[in-house]
Amino acid sequence: MRRALVLVVALAFGLAFTGSLVAQQQGGIGGPGRDAPRLRGPEPFTRETPAPPMQRAITDDVRRRRNYPDQPPLIPHAIEGYALVLNANKCLSCHSRRFTEQSQAPMVSVTHYQDRDGNFLGGIAPRRYACLGCHVPQTTAQPLVDNSFTDLDDISEPERRSR
Amino acid sequence: MTDILARAGATRVGSWVRQAFTPARTLSLAFLTLGGFLAGVVFWGGFNTALEVLNTEKFCTSCHEMQSNVFEELKGTIHFTNRSGVRATCPDCHVPHNWTDKIARKMQASKEVWGHLFGSIDTREKFLGLRRTLAEHEWERMKANDSLECRNCHSAVSMDLAKQNPRAADAHQAFLFTGQKTCIDCHKGIAHRLPNMQGVPGWQ
């Protein structure tokens, strides 16, 4: 009984292996068989290719429209070298309630001063401390795949459609 | 004077003092003045050369405390690597460039030699434990001299606000040019990582 089982498992593995080999030969790595380009480009992974240059950060200080109301706002300025660690949070030096007058920066959303049960806290809730977990800067990089995202307004309320 | 010298002559040290104050018998005036001048040049030059050797990044990072903590942290920052390759070394920011202040700082640094010999920060844990204290020393020094070491390179007069981000330009106009704040008040932790910033003005 046990021997039969081992045989069946080995046979299954063998079939799967040959199957994958055939698939590779048909599609080719990174070839027409794939629907999305890989991060490292069309070259097969066996060939070493130079890394693409780093993309430039967008630092024009112009606020970006949110794609939906509860999207975390994007960061339109440089954040290179800003501390966001247990010891220090540089973001809060401008965006916390205390410093918005001198910095004229938008204040951290009021939801960030609540714990998860909705109770208001004196300062930033610990679970909201890691700003970059949701708020991110942008670069000039072109998307690897086309984005077919449609704004909700374009579907639901044609009179509010963005032109 | 001769009285004092005569009395001093009784002892051994006293005889040297007496010798020093007696006019030279065999050495010429030219030898003494020119020789003294040359010896002065050699000693003064040697002193300053030694001072300069002790004022290099190579010397600072010859201690593992500096090499494996603060120097490693510096490497990722704009004061080590940037577009144009102009960079700051340790003494550019941490040793005053003015001679008297430099000597004063060098004498203060004898405490650091003590710390090195007795291993006050010879592990990463000890260093992190003392980091707030050490950082506060530097903040206080730069606050007291109006961020002189920053201003040795970054002159407020030469800042082109049009080339700064509007955000930076506004802040410099409101706080730096009015003298309300000095560089270190806002630009803390730009070359090394920060200690726990709880209670530091301007930090949450």
TrEMBL record, chain B:
It is found in: Cell membrane. Its main location: membrane. Heme 4 binds at C183, C186, H187. Residues 25-197 form the NapC/NirT cytochrome c N-terminal domain. Heme 1 binds at C60, C63, M66, E112. Pfam families: Cytochrom_NNT. It is a single-pass membrane protein. This is Cytochrome c-type protein.
